[in-house]
Amino acid sequence: MELPATVFVAGGAIIASLITGLITFTNILISKDQKTSEFRQDWIDRVRDEVSVFISSVADFTTHLVDKKDDQDALDKLYDDNMKLTSEIVRSYNSLRLHLNKVDDKEIVDILGELYEFAAKGEIDFEVKDVTKKENELISLTQDMLKEEWTRVKAGEKTYRFMKWFGLSMIIAPLLVIAMNYQYIATFLAP
Q: What is the DSSP track for 15-41?
């Protein structure tokens, strides 16, 4: 029994449209995931910059506080002369709190708060080494968190990884089916 040629044409058209649909769907998912990865990379850069600004501002300001803690007039002048620096500390502190997840990044948020308190509280009951210790803790935790995010960016989003392996399996599976059924197909198509 011979199959009419129109069956093969119709089957080919259906398969071609399915392949086109799959490629389009895959491209949409990949584009979305690439954009998400770009946003993650931008977020990483912004957090890195903000942590750097925050730490340097707090270090600068608290060093001056400790140096002048025994001279109230000098402290008053320090506060008056450094409004821009204190504003930068507040701005970067709030920016980091908005960028970070208060649950996932709790340790980082807590240390940010402790560093902010060094600069914001009226009582200077700390030394520069106390601030430096907290700054180093913040740097270490931030590096770990940013490395984890960078690893996620490099690996791609979950959907992208799934589609990559799904697409590969969609190429290999038909080839395996054809290879396993080669003898049957050859016999069926033989005159």
A: HHHHHHHHHHHHHHHHHHHHHHHHHHH
